[in-house]
Design goal:
The chain has eleven helices and twelve strands. By secondary structure, it is an alpha/beta fold. The protein has two domains: 130 residues, Rossmann fold (3-Layer(aba) Sandwich), CATH 3.40.50; 182 residues, NAD(P)-binding Rossmann-like Domain (Rossmann fold), CATH 3.40.50. The strands form two sheets. It has a seven-stranded parallel sheet, sandwiched between helices. Helix 5 crosses helix 7.
């Protein structure tokens, strides 16, 4: 029987799918890199199922050789995996795209609404006994009808957010540095703009790009200073896409109106002062946090692992070239 190692326990149906065909071990915690290396050396496995917080470096991959054949990631983003090193070692890397599109788009809209209508500020005031009754000028927010939403990155999630924003009567523009297929229902309803023009024109900027060298600190001090003073920045992609220290200054000094964040640059640690910014809505990485979505992610993670054990290219393989020259044989 083959062996599979998870750093954290995954929801059903992961265990039900893999147990009949592999021995499953679960660390039950996010390990230090040195601990994961020691574990793989001591007890080799065919498949490693890490979380997005687990750095899968070349050293980790080397510790898993010669048995390790697949890293089946329980996430869409794979910036924590050294894919180039995995490819060089003939180790497949797979992820879970598609199934969390709607959940993440819903979370984006929740942050957008909370930030533009100052819901969290109001909630804090009510709980503190500071609400003294309705007043004409109290906690005024942004009207969404006819406001411009600027979507940075226009893949599945970006387009799902655009669709929801159009339902609120917003105008939608997008910026992308790669060719994208626009869904039929959005053609003629959204406008492409150069990134810098979009950032400076939008009432709300929503980020939906992968974390790469090119997108690290994509929203830096210059970008923040170019935004409208009333604009809101929303991020449900990856934390390091924003220079978080610069964002704290922008929120404190009024360069922008507010922010809605689900991810953080050094997650789970916040940049100094971010937690004290009342004009920031902060959620604890809940983008995919629905029962149905997490189960769907678990199903894909399991299927990717089983595909690799059967000698097939995983259905969501990031580096399928590892199979081209010498496909691995089934583990049984």
């Amino acid at each position: 029987m083959a062996d599979i190692l998870c750093t954290l326990s995954l929801p059903a149906p992961f265990e039900e799918m893999v147990r009949p065909r592999a021995t499953l071990s679960v660390l039950g915690r996010t390990p230090a890199t040195s601990e994961l290396i020691d574990r793989l050396r001591a007890t080799p496995v065919e498949v490693l199922c890490p979380q997005l917080r687990d750095p899968i470096t070349a050293a980790v991959l080397d510790a898993g050789l010669p048995r390790l054949r697949c890293v089946s990631l329980y996430a869409v983003g794979y910036n924590n995996v050294d894919v180039e090193a995995a490819t060089a070692r003939k180790i497949a890397v797979s992820n879970t795209p598609g199934v969390l599109t709607d959940a993440t788009a819903d979370c984006t809209m929740a942050l957008l609404l909370a930030a533009t209508r100052r819901i969290c500020e109001g909630d804090a005031a009510v709980r503190a006994g500071a609400f003294e009754g309705w007043e004409p000028g109290y906690l005024l927010g942004m009207e969404l009808t006819d406001a411009l939403l600027g979507v940075v990155g226009f893949g599945r999630i970006g387009q799902a957010v655009a669709r929801r924003a159009l339902g609120f009567g917003m105008r939608v523009a997008y910026a992308t540095d790669v060719a994208v297929a626009i869904d039929d229902d959005l053609i003629g309803r959204v406008t492409e703009m150069p990134l810098r023009q979009l950032i400076s024109a939008a009432d709300v900027v929503s980020l939906h790009v992968p974390l790469t060298g090119a997108t690290h600190h994509l929203i830096d001090e210059n970008a923040l200073r170019s935004m409208r003073s009333t604009a809101v920045l929303v991020n449900t992609s990856r934390g390091p896409v924003i220079d978080e220290n610069a964002l704290v200054r922008a929120l404190r000094e009024g360069w922008i109106g507010g922010a809605g964040l689900d991810v953080y640059e050094k997650e789970p640690v916040l940049a100094p002062g971010l937690g004290e910014c009342r004009n920031a809505v902060l959620s604890p990485h809940l983008g995919s946090a629905t029962v149905a979505t997490r189960a769907a992610m678990a199903r894909l993670t399991a299927q990717n692992a089983l595909d690799a054990l059967d000698g097939r290219v995983p259905g969501n393989c990031i580096n399928p070239s590892v199979w081209e020259s010498a496909p691995p044989q089934p583990a049984w």
